[in-house]
Amino acid sequence: GQNIDQPTEMTATEGAIVQINCTYQTSGFNGLFWYQQHAGEAPTFLSYNVLDGLEEKGRFSSFLSRSKGYSYLLLKELQMKDSASYLCAVRDSGGYNKLIFGAGTRLAVHP
Amino acid sequence: KAGVTQTPRYLIKTRGQQVTLSCSPISGHRSVSWYQQTPGQGLQFLFEYFSETQRNKGNFPGRFSGRQFSNSRSEMNVSTLELGDSALYLCASSSGGGQGAKNIQYFGAGTRLSVL
């Protein structure tokens, strides 16, 4: 079956660092994506990993270990505007653009 | 460059009716995917269209269908609406390259459908 797990909620303080974990068990794998979704808005693309290792993009970094079925999104220097849901999604190997999403992690950043 | 445009933004229908949602992809993108988002199930893949052909399909009943036009615009149709079809329907477009391509999907703001 297809299963993607992420914590439901997290809280953090402005200026701090937070790590959002994602574990997956899918029948195929052709890349892992992280999206950010503010309430009532469209998901926006944050990062993409297809090979093991760390991808860094400004305040955001994403890590992938394919052998462990594990990824994390690291957010540094947290800002209030980072309060949002973070969605982990795996692209099915046979499905071109079929993304399988986790339930999302709702992050609340407090002053 | 304009983003993904979905119309309408909000819809209210009654059980048994049918509905058509529209999606205009980013210029130059040939792939359009549709997703259903609900609080209980999260984001679930409905289907993907590429060059006017359905390339992949999720696990939804046949009441959910779609099509793509030659200009890459796509429509999604839901017939015989049920209460459980109330959801945010999101469309995403990508360049639609082969399996090895990055193919980042960019999402529209969605159509919020309420079935009464």
Strand content of chain B: over 45%
Estimated helix fraction of chain B: under 10%
Say what oligomer this is. Answer: heterodimer
Number of helices of chain B: 0
Count of DSSP H/I helices of chain A: 0
Mean pLDDT of chain B: 93
Describe this structure in words.
The complex is a heterodimer of chains A (111) and B (116). With 111 residues, chain A is an all-beta fold. In chain A, 0% of the residues lie in helices and 56% in strands. In chain A, strands 2, 4, 5, 9, 10 and 11 form a 6-stranded mixed sheet that branches. Chain A is globular. The mean pLDDT of chain A is 94. Chain B is globular, with a radius of gyration of 14 Å. Chain B has strands at residues 5-7, 10-13, 19-24, 31-38, 42-50, 53-57, 64-68, 74-78, 87-94, 106-107, 111-115. Chain B has no helices and 11 strands. In chain B, 0% of the residues lie in helices and 52% in strands. In chain B, strands 2, 4, 5, 6, 9, 10 and 11 form a 7-stranded mixed sheet that branches. In chain B, a hairpin with a 5-residue loop joins strand 7 (64-68) and strand 8 (74-78). With 116 residues, chain B is mainly β. At the A-B interface, strand 5, strand 9 and strand 10 of A face strand 4, strand 5, strand 9 and strand 10 of B.
In short:
With 111 residues, chain A is mainly beta. Chain A contains no helices and 11 strands. The model of chain A has no long low-confidence stretch (mean pLDDT 94).
